Amino acid sequence: NPTGATLSLSTAHQLLKLIDQSNLIVIEDDIFSDFEYTPAPRLAALDNLSRVIFIGSFSKTLSASIRCGYIIAKPEWIDQITDLKIATSFSHNGLSAKILHTALTDGSYRKHLDLLKVRLAQAMQETIAKLKSIGIEPWIEPKAGIFVWCRLPEGVDAAKIAQFCLNRQVILAPGNAFSQAQSAGQFIRFNITQSNHDYIYKTLAEALLQESLENRV
Hints:
four-stranded antiparallel β-sheet, single chain, alpha+beta, 7 helices, 7 strands
């Protein structure tokens, strides 16, 4: 997120070298990992939890109402993390935990994931095809997941496209919302699970036409 790309082994090793040199502790936020068909390298596994704390969640794969996750860290850090959780939370959702425990132990979570991956793969193909038909190209075609990072036609500003669409009740995520350097002004991130309405593409096409006409003046 936002690009839909997966971490390569060489990049992971380069990151770990920088982490070690900088004496940093890294939080590996991996809430989308269960969407993958082929697991990508994990910093926590390569680092053997030396400087990496791994966190995951079921709120994306099971339900946004299931606010449950997990943390993996070296044993001597767990007590401090637990104390932090207690200090910053009044309680936990016991019902969500029981629902999740049942789903994980009776096999229903795995069956749910198998069906979900098929539906997401179909939605990814359909979304990319519709975007290409109006001149919006994916930066890469993600192997899995719910996001596709797309490049707009040359000279088109994502912020202007997003504002045009917002005025017509279509909410988009322009690239610079994800860019510390503000260097992604030609990109938009699409959530394929929310991109199945023809009105979205009709509005996008109108926005691109409007921007093209303005650029010619």
